[in-house]
Amino acid sequence: MQNVSAAWLYPIILVAGALQAWGPPMNGALRKSLDNPWLASTVSFLPVVAFLLVLFICLPNPLPSLRGISAMPWWAPLGGLLGAFAVITGLLFVDKIGAGPFAGLTITANILMSLAIDNFGWFGIEQHSLNIWRILGGVLMTCGILLVALF
Q1: Do the beta carbons of residue 141 and residue 113 sit within 8 Å?
Q2: From CA 70, how far away is CA 68, in angstroms rounded?
Q3: Under the phi-then-psi rule, with left for phi > 0, alpha for psi from -120 to 50, and beta for the rest, what region is 140?
Q4: Distance CA 49, CA 66 (A)
Q5: Rounded distance, CA 111 to CA 118, Å?
Q6: How far, in Å, CA of 73 to CA of 71, rounded?
Q7: CB-based burial label for 96 (10 Å; 0-12, 13-18, 19+)
C-alpha cells in the first residue's frame, strides 16, 4: 500500500482522470468546427501553453541549474510530444468509435504500458515487479475494454 500521507492525492487524481475523458470529445468538436485537424491541435494546445507561461511568470522559482540540465536524459523533454500524439489521435478518431471505446482503449494501453514501465524501472521510475495481482488487473482491463468496444 502507498504511503498514507499521499492518500489525499487520490481524489485529485480521480478528478483529473475524469476530466481527461472530456478532452477527446471536446477536441473532436474543435476539429469539426475548424475542419483542419492540425489547426485544431494547435488551438487546443494554445490555452495550455498560455496557462503554463502565466504560472512560470508568476512562480519562476526554482529555475533549473546547469547541472540539472546537463544531467537530464535526452528523452525527458519528449513527454509533451507523446501527449500531443494522444491529443491528435483523440481529435481525429473519438467521433468514429465513441468516447467510451476511445477512453477504454487509451486507458487500457496506458495501464499495460505502465505495468511494463514499472516492471523494468524504465525512465527512472522505481521498479515495481509484476505479480499475479498486477497481471490479473491488466487482464481484467483488457477484458473490460473488449466489452465496452464490442457492445
Answers
A1: no
A2: 6
A3: alpha
A4: 24
A5: 10
A6: 6
A7: exposed
Query: If 0-12 CB within 10 Å is exposed, 13-18 middle and 19+ buried, where does residue 94 land?
Result: buried
Burial of 71 (0-12, 13-18, 19+ CB in 10 A): exposed
Write the CA distances from 52 to 5, 47, 64, 85, integer angstroms. Answer: 28, 9, 16, 19
How much is the pLDDT for 69? 94
Q: How confident is the model at residue 72 (pLDDT cuts 50, 70, 90)?
A: very high
What does the chain come to in residues? 151
150 vs 28, residue with greater confidence: 28
Q: Which three cell numbers stand for residue 108?
A: 487500457
Contact indicator for 147, 139 with CB cutoff of 8 Å? no
pTM value is 0.75
Nearest to 98 by CA among 4, 21, 18: 21
Residue 121 DSSP one-character state? T
Read off the C-alpha cell for 68.
Answer: 540539472
Position 55, amino acid = L
Set of cell numbers at residue 75: 528523452
